[in-house]
């Protein structure tokens, strides 16, 4: 919508500290509605430490933007006094798009404001050029949005493994895809006309767990992702560590004692070479368990009682557990989340991983909370994290 010129000198220029404070306050109010809704405004004030007047003001602004709505059910505080009309998240209007580029295919999805996957599609891309992959993703997203005519897109989140620079919106390097310095934000924004936010998938999934999963309220969270790509992310005090140019979490080439797998870097026994799903599938094919490249075939074979498939999955989970144990020694997180195919789908694999971590820390380790929609959630979580960090700016009506 067209902007009108702001009147000159009608109010003091806000200080940066004031702007940061308002952004933080808006964030904690909307997060409180997400986590506790339907919830009374007075309860939000108590939970956040903000004044009732501030909470009422933020809730009014969120309601105008369509992010929250009043619940139809009146509530009384302990059965006495005036009834409260609680507020709840309005998940009926807005969606975010999610794009996750993995090695064999791209996952495109629509998520609501609670992080629930409403629609998704997988597009195989093989060794297509980055521009082709992103163009197909944009077209697929347009088709999903056309199938949800009552929803309005707030933006698009993009996630991938490798070195992804959040600030510039660029995939700096993804060796398995052959991508280098791909301006993802620029390309997708031009094709979709929507705000585009970009991050690495391990960090994206940490944010998803903080917002919608088991890590809510945790003071520090470590996430290890072991798919075709192996990487990690660490969050403390509600902030994911990115490091200069978002290079934090690159653990692919950490050496594994006793490792035998050759790595593309020229060494033997790198973490990613040992733990990747490509290695799992190659070993399963060599053992006659599967004849393809889909790691879920190994999981299915184990579920059908194939002892070799069971052994391969447990061995991989144990190796992941050793890696987790090393990272725990360095970072000492309150909670650990693992995205690994065996751990997500088999209790014996989770037990094997926890055994390697050690009995004193096993209870802190859990599988990702979205086992059937990991990649769809990863892409959408990038955009949802932006929304919940700065909800007034993230809404198109507020820009």
Notes on the protein architecture:
The chain is α/β, with parallel strands linked by helices and 399 residues long. Helices cover 42% and strands 22% of the residues. It contains 14 helices and 17 strands. Strands 7-6-5-8-12 form a five-stranded mixed sheet. A five-stranded mixed sheet has the order 15-14-13-16-17, with helices on both faces. The protein is globular, with a radius of gyration of 23 Å. The N terminus is likely disordered.
Condensed summary:
The chain is an alpha/beta fold and 399 residues long.
Query: β content, as a range?
Result: 15-25%
Task: Report the structural category.
Answer: alpha/beta
What is the number of beta strands? 17
Helix content class: 40-55%
Shape: globular
Mean pLDDT: 90
Strand order of the largest sheet: 7-6-5-8-12
Name the quaternary structure: single chain
Number of helices: 14
Intertermini distance: 10 Å
Please give the largest β-sheet: 5 strands, mixed
Task: Sum up the structure in keywords.
single chain; about 400 residues; alpha/beta; five-stranded mixed beta sheet; disordered N terminus
Task: Set out the fold topology.
Elements: H1 16-36, H2 41-48, H3 52-65, E1 68-70, E2 75-77, E3 80-84, E4 87-89, E5 94-101, E6 105-111, E7 117-124, H4 130-146, E8 152-160, E9 163-165, E10 170-174, E11 179-182, H5 184-192, E12 196-200, H6 201-212, E13 220-226, E14 230-236, E15 239-240, H7 271-275, H8 277-286, H9 295-303, H10 307-331, E16 335-340, H11 341-345, H12 347-357, E17 365-367, H13 374-389, H14 391-394
Parallel strand pairs: 5-8, 8-12, 13-16, 16-17
Antiparallel strand pairs: 1-4, 2-3, 5-6, 6-7, 9-10, 10-11, 13-14, 14-15
Helix pairs in contact: 1-2, 1-3, 2-3, 4-5, 6-13, 9-10, 10-12
């Amino acid at each position: 919508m067209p902007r009108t010129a702001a009147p000159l000198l009608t109010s003091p220029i806000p200080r940066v500290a004031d702007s940061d404070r308002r952004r933080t306050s808006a964030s904690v109010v909307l997060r409180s509605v997400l986590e506790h809704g339907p919830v009374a405004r007075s309860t939000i004030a108590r939970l956040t430490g903000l004044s009732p007047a501030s909470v009422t003001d933020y809730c009014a602004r969120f309601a105008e933007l369509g992010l929250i709505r009043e619940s139809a059910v009146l509530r009384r505080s302990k059965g006495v006094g005036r009834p409260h009309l609680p507020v709840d998240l309005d998940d009926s209007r807005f969606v975010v798009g999610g794009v996750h580029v993995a090695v064999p295919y791209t996952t495109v999805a629509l998520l609501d404001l609670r992080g629930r996957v409403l629609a998704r599609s997988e597009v195989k891309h093989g060794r297509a050029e980055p521009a082709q992959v992103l163009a197909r993703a944009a077209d697929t997203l347009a088709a999903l949005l056309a199938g949800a005519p009552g929803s309005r897109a707030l933006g698009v989140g993009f996630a991938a493994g490798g070195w992804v620079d959040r600030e510039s919106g660029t995939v700096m390097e993804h060796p398995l895809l052959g991508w280098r310095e791909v301006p993802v934000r620029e390309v997708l924004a031009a094709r979709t006309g929507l705000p585009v936010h970009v991050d690495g998938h391990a960090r994206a999934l940490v944010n998803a767990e903080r917002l919608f999963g088991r890590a809510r309220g945790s003071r520090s969270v470590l996430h290890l992702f072991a798919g075709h790509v192996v990487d990690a992310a660490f969050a403390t005090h509600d902030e994911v560590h990115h490091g200069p140019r978002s290079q934090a979490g690159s653990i692919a080439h950490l050496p594994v004692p006793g490792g035998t797998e050759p790595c593309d870097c020229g060494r033997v026994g790198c973490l990613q070479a040992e733990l990747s799903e490509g290695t799992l599938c190659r070993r399963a094919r060599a053992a006659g368990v599967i004849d393809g490249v889909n790691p879920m075939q190994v999981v299915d074979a184990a579920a059908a009682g194939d002892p070799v498939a069971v052994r391969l999955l447990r061995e991989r989970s144990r190796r992941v557990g050793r890696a987790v144990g090393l990272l725990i020694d360095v970072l000492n997180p309150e909670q650990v989340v693992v995205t690994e195919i065996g751990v997500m789908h088999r209790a014996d694999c989770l037990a094997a991983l926890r055994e390697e971590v050690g009995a004193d820390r096993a209870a802190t380790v859990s599988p990702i909370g979205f086992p059937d929609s990991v990649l769809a959630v990863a892409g959408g979580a990038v955009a949802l994290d932006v929304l919940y960090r700065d909800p007034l700016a993230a809404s198109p009506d507020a820009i």
